[in-house]
Amino acid sequence: MSTESIVLTAVQDASRSWSAIVHGWITTVDHKRIGILYIVLALVFLVIGGMEATILRIQLIVPHNHFVSPQFFNQMFTMHGTTMIFFVAMPILFGFGNYLIPLMIGARDMAFPRVNAWSFWLTAFGGMLLYFSFIGGYGLYGAGAAPDVGWFAYAPLTAPAFSVGHSTDFWTLGLLVSGIGSIGAAVNFVATILCMRCPGMSLGRMPLLVWLNLVMGSMVLFVISPLTAAQIMLAVDRFLGGHFFDTQAGGSAVLWMHFFWIFGHPEVYVLVIPAFAFISEIVPVFSRKPIFGYPIMVAATVGIGFVSFGVWAHHMFTVGMNSYANSFFALTTMVVGVPTGIKIFNWIGTMWGGQLQFKTPLLFCIGFLFQFLIAGLTGIMLACTPFNWQLSGSYFVVAHFHYVIVGAILFALFGAFYYWFPKMSGRMYNETLGKLHFWLFVIGFHLTFDFMHIPGLLGMPRRIYTYEPGRGWELWNLICTIGVFFQGIAVLIFVANLVRSWFVGKLVGNDPWDAWTLEWSTSSPPPEYNFAEIPVVSSRRPLWDLKHPEDPDLDV
Amino acid sequence: MSSATLAPSTLESKWVLPSRGHVGMLCLIAAESAIFIIFVVAYIFYLGKNVSGPGPKDVLEVPIFATICLLSSSITIHFALSAIRREKLGAFALWWFITFALGFIFLVETGIEWYRLIYHHGLTISTNLFGTTYYSLVGLHASHVTVGLVLLLTVSIFALLGKVRREHEPRLDVLAYYWHFVDAVWVVVFTVVYIVGR
Questions:
Q1: What value of ipTM does the predicted structure carry?
Q2: Which residue in chain B is spatially nearest to A226 when comparing CA positions?
């Protein structure tokens, strides 16, 4: 194993022209650059999606508000949901996976570097296609319109009769294209992890991040495909006059719901499993202890992967399924909580008795632990069919899934950003600003999403444009909106911190956290070929072995 | 730097991982299977829900000849691969071209069937629910056959030019996985559309 990189001054010439640098980034097949491209794409869409969310919250800050028109409000919540899931969460997780997996398994690149670039550009093109609807939604007659059918686009709202113009076409095609990109990325993840490991890196010695991304990649193959199939059907209906979801010709609107949620629910686990992966790498390093219960963590993840394919219809309790289906999906939904609970205990077990170092990455992980627990508990509540009948389609559901996506996934992502930023940039971020980001975001998050449960319980429906005064919703909506500004300021601090540190941060060596996985054995940022010599490993913590030859890790 | 973890060189010699081409193709097949499953489920779900004619019982004829052609192409591609493994390049080129020809006959037969449905029975993708589900499912399969034929023909051309050699066998094997998958999907589509659904 090499801790030094070969110096190639001729290739890494700093005086290259601006156009050559852009050309280099556009034509790159290097997994690290593609990873960063994915992350930058996702951050751009994060800002756009965040602004859409802010518009929604400003509209709801007081009753009878007219900040935006009802039509624009519908477009905003559709674009916010679609953007955040498909063009923020997915690409950002693919980006981190792309960057980290080859480094962690001691490989020089992904299994299919060109497929990797192709997948990224499809995702980027899908996002552009979606946002082009603002210009071309009515078919370039001068005025555009974004899709306004909601992010799950229930039939028959998407039928040509009810979605006039091309806005829904852009939604369908954008998701179809980016979905193909996601499948390409997933094929690459699985093939890389199975076929590119360095000598000695058996499955049982892979870092948990790699294991969890293997599960995530395998899931994506079966998760995105139903969505792709459903989008093809919708495209057939809209472009070729088909009748898949046309109830007047015998088609079924409920079938779309099934197809969408067969994608939609496992998708949540596709997003949260990489978040688990970040936590499983960060918590041990900042607790100075190896992960507690490695094999159980792997087994629990695989278990979540399987069970998550049998829970989709809990999104459809109010549609009117029979009692057997209701019971089945309530039961499976509760079962999925068991392996998830195992994981929470394992992370706590890792921290227990460790020498905790409360740096920014660990703070975000601790935030994740508490908030993910609460998100899981409201999830169990919603799994109870009668309770769900009361609250389905209310702000309680909105609060629940934002607790998962913001409180868990986004917190884990922020932790990952701070943890791997020194590796990606070679420089340290500002710890004070990092902590400020954490505390402002925690305050903002809890102001918005804790208090969002209450109007839901009081009967406030989701996607409502405005509401009457006197229902007891005013105060809660006001608090929710105030929280958004805390979150917005926190994200601005985060971006400013990273951008500033990228240029003027303190230089760090290969391994600022005294960590154990292979990515810290090479230089920061890693050279294009990652490792001058392909490493050979003999335990789960190869870098620990290297630093402590007298006390090697337990061989497995 | 310590070399404590640098394992003995014996490890490296034993270190065998699966081929990335095969794993990648199997992943793609998994994803494609999920797409086909959704279309098959939609087809079965909509059987008998047609509100206007024609229905499958009125117009469909079992494509026995096309099916025999497509399924036997799985056998001929296998012969082609065993020929190249024994370095019999002429036999390889012949079997490979026969595979392409059989697949092509299948596609032509599908075209003839669609012509008959469209011009004699007036069934298009927008006529009724049966038309929508039928053309989508069979068309999705036919598009996969078309992709396979392009790949098969490319290899055939290279074989004619004498550019295909023994060391290309692993890549051709990956391509054969895809072709077997296309055949296996046809078994399901044939059963659902022409036997169960008729």
A1: 0.92
A2: B35
The CA-atom distances, in angstroms, between A314 and each of A261, A309, A328, A380 are 9, 12, 9, 11
Domain boundaries defined on chain A: 28-547
Give the gap in angstroms from C-alpha A117 to the nearest C-alpha of chain B: 16
What pLDDT does residue B68 have? 97
- CA separation, residue B140 to residues A41, A197, A232, A401, B29 (Å): 32, 36, 10, 35, 14
Q: Which of B32, B52, B125 sits opposite A236 (nearest CB)?
A: B125
* pLDDT at residue B14, rounded to an integer: 78
Interface test with B, best of A115, A221, A237 (most B CBs within 10 A): A221
User: Minimal Cα distance from B23: which residue of A?
Assistant: A191
Distance separating alpha carbons of residues A122 and A182, to the nearest angstrom: 8
pLDDT computed for residue B11 by the predictor: 52
C-alpha distance from B111 to closest chain A C-alpha (Å): 19
Q: Do B32 and A252 touch (CB under 8 A)?
A: no
Domain, as residue range, for B122: 36-42+62-196
- CB nearest B23 (choices: A195, A252, A542): A195
- Residue A515: CB atoms within 10 Å: 22
pLDDT band at A548 (very low <50, low <70, confident <90, very high): confident
Number of domains in chain B: 1
Could you tell me which chain B residue has the CA closest to the CA of A241? B126
Q: Which of B11, B45, B128 sits opposite A255 (nearest CB)?
A: B45
Of A391, A388, A390, A351, the residue nearest A369 (C-alpha): A351
- How many whole angstroms separate alpha carbon A146 and alpha carbon A79? 7
End-to-end CA distance of chain B: 72
Task: Please report, for the domain that includes residue B190, its CATH number.
Answer: 1.20.120.80
Any residues with CB less than 8 A from the CB of A220 and at least 6 apart, and which? A182, A183, A185, A186, A189, A270
CA distance A244 to chain B (A): 7
To test the contact with chain B by mutation, choose from A101, A114, A194, A245 the residue with the greatest count of B C-beta atoms within 10 A, namely A194
CB count within 10 Å of CB A106 equals: 26
With 50 as the cut, is the pLDDT of residue B168 above it? yes
Hey, of A237, A536, A554, A555, which one would you mutate to test binding to chain B, going by the most B CBs within 10 A of its CB? Answer: A536
B16 touches chain A (CB under 8 A): no
- B87 inside domain: yes
B125 within domain boundaries: yes
Taking alpha carbons only, the member of A263, A261, A187 closest to residue A225 is: A263
- Nearest CA to A429 out of A488, A483, A364, A487 is that of A364
Which B positions 22-61 lie with beta carbon below 8 A of chain A? 23-24, 27-28, 30-39, 42, 45-46, 49-52
DSSP secondary structure, A315-331, as one string = G-GGG---HHHHHHHHH
CB contact under 8 A, A186 and B19: no
**Measured between beta carbons, which residues in chain B are less than 8 angstroms from residue A544?**
none
Q: Identify whether B6 is part of a domain.
A: no
Q: Which of A218, A230, A242 sits opposite B125 (nearest CB)?
A: A242
What is the tens place of the pLDDT at every residue in A113-168? Answer: 999 999 999 999 999 999 998 887 665 554 568 888 999 999 889 998 888 888 89
Backbone dihedral angles phi then psi of residue A417, each to the nearest 5 degrees: -55, -50
* pLDDT exceeds cutoff 90 at A310: yes
A28-547 CATH: 1.20.210.10
Mean pLDDT for the stretch of residues A227-254: 94
CA closest to B3 among chain A residues:
A546
Answer whether 0.80 is exceeded by the pTM. yes
> Residue A280's pLDDT is what?
96
Burial A262-296 (b: 16+ CB within 10 A, else e): bbbbbbbbbbbbbbbbbbbbbbbbbbebbbbbbeb
Q: Is residue B54 part of a domain?
A: no
